[in-house]
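Please, does this match?
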Amino acid sequence: MGLARNTDPEGLNCFAPAQGAPCSPETGQSVFFFSDPMMGILALVNLLTIIMLFPVGMRVLHDYRDQLKQGADEPVFDPAKFPDLDIDASAWEK
């Protein structure tokens, strides 16, 4: 199957078979009208998640820095220091 001749003067239907739907100006606008608010909602969810994980990340970072101050050449994460985080200790075994 070869490339079909583009008869659309605006060139909008040239990739319609790959998209699985006709691509008219109205369809393109409706996609952007739907996707922009959804991207905003996803950004808010991501920001909320970062805010919730920030204290945990800071605790782990402080442990890392404390190990460096104590002279550790290669700091090692010890899940036993954070029993409240419910970390799978077997995932951190060497």
